[in-house]
Amino acid sequence: xxxxxxxxxxxxxxxxxxxxxxxxxxxxxxxxxxxxxxxxxxxxxxxxxxxxxxxxxxxxxxxxxxxxxxxxxxxxxxxxxxxxxxxxxxxxxxxxxxxxxxxxxxxxxxxxxxxxxxxxxxxx
Length: 124
Fold this sequence. Notes:
Layout: E1 2-5, E2 8-11, H1 20-26, E3 45-48, E4 51-54, E5 67-69, H2 75-89, H3 95-111
Parallel strand pairs: 1-5
Antiparallel strand pairs: 1-2, 3-4, 3-5
């Protein structure tokens, strides 16, 4: 099946019962973190056709034609990370991953609002 990851076209044949998270990691997208495995912690969040999903529970057989954006493929997340990254380095395990998940969700919501600029830095 064909789909795109961070704007690059890829082809993969997922095994029966495989989830998006393991497909992405098989394709060397290790920025998609392993966490709870049940969709609770948000460490594995990616955008699927612009909507945030938990990749650890999303069935890989549904990927045909989808556009996946990981945290490293999101320009607005990078811009926001420059202002918050130093705090994450001191965070306990999974807290940084959850923060990335929240940033993806927020940047996605901001980009849907008229007149918004999701690439701009947050006010200090």
